[in-house]
Design goal:
heterodimer, A: mainly alpha, 11% strand, B: mainly alpha, Serine Threonine Protein Phosphatase 5, Tetratricopeptide repeat, 7 helices, 54% helix, 12% strand
């Protein structure tokens, strides 16, 4: 009985930590381009990181 | 560009390391008006003050976007007096993308950056010699031609 309770707790802990091991959706997105959506933020980051802002005016249709 | 250019790993890495990327709808105001966007895609590089430093209209593949951005960044570095960094971008462009349409222009502006840095006009003659050897039919070779006769 005590052993089975230990087993249940162990399995539960393993299942709880599985999401840490697996690539998260955010992690998967991190492999793509992280587009900034706010112009002021883009300018602030450009200044802080000494980079240029790349603007892509696109037509989704 | 969503299908082939932006998923490309070399594009992702270059953008991550060199620019702050922002996407906007072509008619998103007030920025579309501010930057006089009349065609899509319009790709613009701006500095931290919001001043436009480079523009391209029309879609680019991975082998077109990276050298275009390299050229734009290199020219901005040169204009802002960071000549060594400008030369570095131009060198990388011409070595990695020698067949790109930006390569001859990069050689020309590499000469300009080197001249501004050293005050030695021979930098422009060297640019001409490089251009005439590799890109004899390029408009940038013709633009550098006046420096050919320098001693």
């Amino acid at each position: 009985m005590r052993f089975s309770r230990f087993l249940v707790v162990t399995v539960a802990l393993v299942l709880l930590t599985v999401p840490i091991w697996l690539p998260s959706p955010a992690g998967a997105q991190g492999q793509g381009i992280q587009w900034v959506t706010n112009f002021d933020e883009a300018l602030a980051r450009a200044k802080a990181e000494n980079k240029l802002v790349f603007l892509d005016f696109f037509n989704p249709n | 560009m969503d299908a082939g250019t932006y998923p490309d790993q070399a594009v992702i890495q270059f953008i991550r390391e060199n620019v702050i990327p922002m996407r906007l709808l072509h008619d998103q105001q007030p920025l579309a008006g501010r930057f006089s966007v009349t065609w899509t895609p319009t790709l613009i590089l701006i500095d931290a003050q919001g001043k436009e430093v480079y523009r391209n209209e029309g879609a680019l593949g991975p082998a077109g976007l990276i050298p275009a951005l390299m050229l734009g960044i290199g020219k901005e570095k040169s204009h802002s007096g960071h000549y060594d960094k400008a030369v570095s971008y131009f060198d990388e462009l011409t070595s990695k993308y020698p067949k790109s349409e930006e390569a001859p222009e990069a050689i020309y502006y590499r000469g300009v950056a080197r001249f501004k840095s050293t005050k030695d006009i021979k930098a422009m003659k060297e640019a001409y010699l490089q251009l005439s050897a590799a890109y004899p039919g390029s408009p940038w070779t013709r633009k550098a031609q006046p420096y050919a006769s320098l001693k």
